[in-house]
Design goal:
With about 300 residues, the chain is α/β, with parallel strands linked by helices. It has 2 domains: about 190 residues, NAD(P)-binding Rossmann-like Domain (Rossmann fold), CATH 3.40.50.720; about 100 residues, UDP-galactose 4-epimerase, domain 1, CATH 3.90.25. Helix content is about 35%, strand content about 20%. It contains 10 helices and 14 strands. The chain has a 7-stranded parallel β-sheet, sandwiched between helices. A 3-stranded mixed β-sheet has the order 8-10-12. A two-stranded parallel ribbon has the order 6-14. α4 links the parallel β4 and β5. The longest helix is centred in the N-terminal third of the chain and has 20 residues. The chain starts with a strand and ends with a helix.
């Protein structure tokens, strides 16, 4: 049994990550914001901490003294309106955490940092490998690639693993994300939904598969110092996702294309290669998209 610290433990991915680790018998400590503390009370040991505050972060790691760390805290929505908060949270708060971990008498044996496939930008089409050059197209993506470069400053002191997840979804994800938005409208029997370009193809994963991949990377010594795409390796169009969700819900809903949601020069198909990931941790089972959508429709 290992002692894990999860930052962003009250968020969508954090709660699923905690469930994955607890199912394996590990001890979980979760860093949460004040307004999330009640959500996760009782599930694992919680620590209320503002990661932008260096002293609070120092106290957090001294208290938790983790064997392994999963750093998920951050601004997760590309369209987040507060640019200052994006950089303070995704870059500076991450540096505070690494600085505090590096000062521990016994640093963790593995630290996983969640970056994003958004760092590849919108001009790469087809199958994307970790060797594709970054081409960030928004502040969120810039903050994530900046975090990656900053983390390498600690590479000689800390065992860091960087992951770049592509699109993933599941029960509990906020409805300002695309698939939960569709699910929410279907559950409410809304007559119509506003979307952007529904012909684009994207790589979709189930959050449960994502956190399993994270756990296996943290258990793998060969993963330290490396960067990995987290993806299904298969592209599905938004039109197909919508049709499948409607079929499972037994309800047809009108799509209204909102020009404000249509991005200029949007890549028609975006798909990640999981070859490097599976070379290191072995084959991964994949949850079928239909199963993921059915799970989301069933959950309250």
């Amino acid at each position: 049994m290992a002692r894990y610290l999860i930052t962003g433990a009250g968020g969508f991915t954090g709660l699923h990550m905690a469930a994955e680790l607890l199912s394996q018998g590990h001890e979980v400590h979760g860093a949460v914001r004040d307004d999330h503390a009640a959500v996760v009370a009782g599930l694992f040991t919680t620590h209320v901490c503002d990661l932008k505050d260096r002293e609070q972060v120092r106290q957090l790691v001294e208290s938790a003294r983790p064997d392994k760390v999963v750093h998920l805290a951050g601004i997760a929505h590309v369209a987040h309106s507060d640019v200052t908060e994006i950089y303070e949270t995704n870059l500076l708060a991450s540096r505070n955490l690494l600085e505090a971990l590096a000062r521990l008498e016994t640093p963790p044996s593995a630290i996983l940092l969640a970056s994003s496939a958004n760092i590849y930008g919108n001009r790469h089409g087809g199958m994307i490998t970790e060797d594709n050059p970054p081409d960030p197209a928004n502040d969120y993506a810039v903050s994530k690639i900046a975090m990656e470069h900053m983390a390498r400053l600690f590479g000689d002191r800390l065992p860091i693993i960087i992951v770049r997840p592509f699109n993933y979804t599941g029960a509990g994800q906020a409805s300002n994300f695309l698939v939960p938005k569709i699910i929410d409208h279907l559950k409410r029997r809304a007559p119509a939904i506003e979307l952007g370009n529904i012909d684009v193809e994207r790589d979709w994963s189930d959050v449960r598969d994502v956190v399993t991949a994270y756990r296996r990377l943290l258990d793998c010594a060969k993963a330290v110092g490396e960067t990995f795409n987290i993806c299904s390796g298969h592209a599905t169009s938004l039109k197909e996702v919508f049709a499948l969700a409607c079929s499972l819900a037994g309800y047809e809903m009108e799509i209204r294309v909102n020009p404000a949601f249509v991005r200029t020069s949007e890549v028609a198909s975006l798909c990640g290669s999981s070859e490097k990931l599976e070379q290191v941790i072995g084959p991964l089972s994949r949850t079928d998209l239909e199963q993921t959508l059915a799970w989301m429709l069933e959950k309250a």
